């Protein structure tokens, strides 16, 4: 009997130690950062916590939120900005948002309604709970279309739109308390999930995922960044039922945040966090840098990826999103102030 107890304790110890070791390895503690730079990078400040960026036509739309102080000051608000990249000055303009609740934007999505109207979907972590705010961007102004909420719509992260009415939402944690979220992250017992909105009602989709994050829709496929699984989920969308079939997880080796499909290049660009422990420290104190990395992923070749850009934490830490506009690549981060614009034009290449 005594030997049996010792054996059981030994097995428990090995299991706990093995799980802890995997956590440390997954967090990038022992990995080195592949250094890949881009030329002529400029940091534009005044956009605190530009966690998500989307483009449509000549416009960039930027979700900006002072993420860290929000935990201390519930009255702190975020903002949406846009840039017209075909204008002469290419100024960054703050959009006026008229809501009956606080506005703390997170993930955003855009969809072209017609020649004059761009629909903007926004995850809002308001003091009154999570909402999906839907706006129409017309004549460079926002008009509120509707606000949506649901009992299962909490810890909402990002949105992928099928059209102007139907979309999917990622819910990054199944627990609402800080302790519950910590348990999910440490145990890797994923309780995150996806929700679908069919234009009239929400429904919760099956699946337990470890930190589902950015969403992108490519044709009839939905792609979802599974941050703590270091993978991209792919599935075919059954449009009539707003359900998913043929679900697969494609391992990419790093924790993806927001993802953006570039149809011109036929590649997926993912902001990733190569050292999650540094990210945790950075989330508590933005002055403690966290390495940044953007992957270029070929979804048509077994999700083969290469490092497109990386840095040790400067000039922008914890980059969460990256996308092309013309020959420039734009990046935003979770906690730092600013967006980073880099040229990708080869030296000597004509304008």
In short:
With 351 residues, the protein is mainly β. It is built from 4 helices and 24 strands.
Number of strands: 24
CATH third-tier fold name: Neuraminidase
**How many structural domains?**
1
Q: How widely separated are the two ends?
A: 80 Å
3D shape: globular
What does this structure look like?
With 351 residues, this protein is mainly β. The protein has a single domain (41-343), classed as TolB, C-terminal domain (Neuraminidase), CATH 2.120.10.30. Helices cover 14% and strands 48% of the residues. It is built from four helices and 24 strands. The chain has helices at 2-26, 67-70, 178-187, 276-284, and strands spanning 39-48, 50-56, 59-64, 79-84, 92-95, 105-112, 118-126, 129-138, 141-148, 156-161, 167-171, 193-197, 202-204, 212-218, 221-226, 231-238, 243-251, 255-262, 267-273, 292-298, 304-311, 319-325, 328-333, 337-343. Strands 1-24-23-22 form a four-stranded antiparallel β-sheet, with no helix packed on it. The longest helix has 25 residues, at 2-26. The radius of gyration is 20 Å and the shape is globular. Residues 15-21 have low confidence and may be disordered.
Question: SSE layout and pairings?
Answer:
Blueprint: H1 2-26, E1 39-48, E2 50-56, E3 59-64, H2 67-70, E4 79-84, E5 92-95, E6 105-112, E7 118-126, E8 129-138, E9 141-148, E10 156-161, E11 167-171, H3 178-187, E12 193-197, E13 202-204, E14 212-218, E15 221-226, E16 231-238, E17 243-251, E18 255-262, E19 267-273, H4 276-284, E20 292-298, E21 304-311, E22 319-325, E23 328-333, E24 337-343
Antiparallel strand pairs: 1-24, 2-3, 3-4, 4-5, 6-7, 7-8, 8-9, 10-11, 11-12, 12-13, 14-15, 15-16, 16-17, 18-19, 19-20, 20-21, 22-23, 23-24
């Amino acid at each position: 009997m005594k030997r049996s107890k010792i054996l059981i304790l030994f097995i428990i110890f090995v299991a706990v130690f093995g799980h802890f070791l995997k956590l440390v390895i997954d967090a990038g503690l022992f990995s080195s950062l592949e250094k890949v730079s881009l030329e002529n990078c400029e940091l534009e400040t005044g956009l605190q916590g530009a966690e998500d960026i989307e483009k449509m036509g000549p416009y960039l739309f930027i979700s900006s939120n002072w993420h860290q102080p929000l935990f201390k000051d519930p009255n702190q608000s975020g903002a949406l900005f846009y840039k017209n990249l075909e204008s002469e000055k290419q100024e960054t303009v703050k959009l006026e948002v008229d809501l009956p609740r606080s506005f703390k934007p997170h993930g955003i999505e855009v969809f072209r309604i017609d020649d004059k109207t761009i629909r903007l979907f926004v995850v809002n972590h308001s003091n009154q709970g999570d909402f999906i705010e839907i706006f129409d961007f017309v004549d460079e102004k926002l008009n509120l279309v509707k606000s949506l909420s649901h009992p299962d719509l909490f810890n909402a992260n990002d949105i992928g739109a099928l059209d102007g009415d139907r979309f999917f939402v990622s819910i990054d944690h199944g627990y609402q308390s800080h302790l519950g979220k910590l348990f999910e992250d440490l145990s890797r017992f994923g309780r995150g999930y996806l929700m679908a909105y069919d234009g009239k009602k929400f429904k919760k989709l099956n699946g337990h995922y470890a930190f589902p994050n950015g969403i992108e829709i490519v044709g009839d496929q939905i792609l979802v960044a599974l941050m703590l699984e270091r993978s991209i989920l792919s599935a075919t969308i059954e449009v009539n039922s707003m359900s998913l079939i043929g679900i697969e997880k494609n391992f990419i080796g790093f924790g993806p945040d927001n993802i953006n499909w570039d149809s011109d290049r036929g590649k997926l660009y993912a902001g990733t966090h190569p050292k999650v422990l540094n990210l945790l420290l950075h989330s508590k104190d933005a002055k403690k840098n966290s390495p940044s990395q953007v992957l270029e992923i070929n979804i048509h070749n077994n999700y083969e990826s290469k490092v497109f850009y990386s840095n040790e934490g400067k000039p922008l830490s914890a980059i969460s999103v990256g996308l092309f506009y013309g020959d420039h690549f734009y990046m935003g981060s979770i906690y730092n102030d600013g967006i980073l614009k880099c040229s990708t034009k080869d030296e000597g290449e004509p304008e």
